[in-house]
Design a protein that fits this description.
single chain, alpha+beta, six-stranded antiparallel beta sheet, four-stranded antiparallel beta sheet, 14% strand
């Protein structure tokens, strides 16, 4: 049965079927050995499947014959920066394994959550959610045909890697073996001898011992070995945060507004790097073609950056030479273990020469970025400030606390007094 968009509980088959096909996927991956671009494994707390491109899903068995599915797909849309975040567990049953949920959330924020207790369920999505990623993530392990198609293709790719010997089975043979194994594990516990027989057409391309070990731990082989499960919860923890009361954009707006008014700490100029010399040289030569004056601005946040070029009249211009600039190299070179890294950089060329300035502690008025990367983002700001020595964190850093979107301050320009703080809490931003 095809999936809806966004997914619906009735799209999912019996959880035992999903468990069997997902565990088989993990077993086949284990049988392939070191080659695998994806991360599919069975741990002590359930199944973990990642596609190598950021998308993932987890399935755990919960005491009492229940199941929980969490996942995130890069094409899902249960988060929108201009809307209040969806609380995927707003109406979740109390038996959910809350400790397991929170451990998962610490690593990856899920984009969908489905639970099973005789039937599948999830929260009701707001009207703006048109995709949660359930189809892309679960289709492979809901249908034998999908499993044969997707897993067969990936196994074929792996087996025909140059590191594997020649003369290996073709895709049609691989698909036939996967179909046989899938039918067997869905039907019930399988004898190890039957698995080895099914693998015979692959001529030893898969490590049957490694594959059988995963199937055994998943409870899919004959015997009394039981699959892993986690304890059921006894109700949503009182310590679990309530829903956000502002959107992500509103949180960023708040931080940006205060950061615009913040002063820069006095820092020594970093020594000039080769990347900075290249920037100065390129900007000086390029400015000569644009009337003698040109300004380059850049933002670096984590592993992404954006940059712009303006002429003397403030008009944005394009030059192919920008693509050759190593702004990340300059950013890394300028990093100091205590004073941190800059977020914004401006290089200005005029007939007097080239000047370069950096903004570590405030959001400068001269930055006019638009689109996807117009601001550093809460996450990169949090990570950067956590790496700095406390005395090099600007006064607005308290606005990065995870409690802020749950309980935003009435006046973000005034830091609430801390326990035992007799200073009155005035912000030094």
């Amino acid at each position: 049965m095809p999936f809806h968009h966004p997914g619906r509980p009735e799209d999912l088959p019996d959880p035992a079927r999903i468990w069997a096909l997902a565990a088989l996927t993990c077993a086949v991956c284990s049988g392939l050995g070191s080659f695998w671009p994806e991360n599919h494994r069975l741990d002590d707390d359930g199944l973990h499947l990642e596609d190598g491109g950021g998308s993932w899903w987890r399935m755990t068995r919960v005491a009492g014959g229940r199941f929980l599915l969490l996942g995130w797909d890069r094409d899902g849309s249960t988060f929108r920066s201009d809307e209040l975040p969806v609380d995927l567990f707003a109406d979740a049953p109390g038996w959910l394994p809350w400790e397991w949920v929170e451990r998962t959330e610490e690593v990856d924020a899920p984009g969908f959550a489905y639970w099973w207790d005789q039937t599948w369920g999830r929260i009701a999505y707001p009207s703006w959610v048109d995709e949660d990623g359930l189809d892309e993530q679960l289709a492979r392990c809901s249908s034998v045909d999908e499993l044969v198609y997707r897993l067969g293709d990936l196994v074929d790719t792996a087996l025909h890697d140059p590191d594997y010997p020649d003369g290996l089975p073709e895709l049609e043979t691989i698909g036939s073996v996967i179909r046989t194994l899938a039918g067997a594990v869905i039907a019930g516990r399988v004898r190890p001898e039957s698995v080895r027989e099914a693998l015979a057409p692959l001529n030893g391309a898969l490590d049957s011992t490694a594959l059988l070990e995963v199937l055994g731990r998943a409870g899919l082989l004959t015997g009394d070995r039981v699959p892993p499960e986690v304890p059921a919860g006894t109700g949503r923890p009182d310590t679990r945060r309530g829903p956000w009361t502002i959107s992500y954009d509103a949180w960023e707006d708040m931080v940006t507004a205060v950061a615009r008014t913040a002063p820069e700490f006095a820092r020594p100029e970093p020594p000039e790097s080769e990347s900075e010399r290249d920037l100065r040289s390129w900007l000086r030569d390029t400015a000569a073609r644009f009337g003698g004056t040109l300004t380059y601005t850049a933002l670096c946040a984590g592993q992404v950056s954006s940059s712009y070029l303006y002429d003397g009249a403030g008009r944005r211009v394009d030059d192919p030479g920008m693509t050759g600039l190593d702004v990340f190299g300059m950013h890394q070179h300028d990093h100091h273990p205590e004073r941190g890294s800059w977020f914004f950089l401006r290089a200005h060329a005029d007939p007097e020469g080239v000047t370069v300035e950096r903004a570590y502690d405030h959001h400068p008025d001269w930055w006019r970025g638009t689109g996807f990367l117009s601001r550093p983002g809460i996450g990169p700001l949090q990570r950067e400030m956590a790496l700095r020595a406390p005395e090099w964190r600007p006064g607005w850093v308290w606005l990065l606390d995870e409690e802020i979107p749950h309980d935003p301050p009435a006046d973000p320009f005034v830091r609430p007094p801390l326990a035992g703080d007799r200073s009155g809490g005035a912000s030094d931003a």
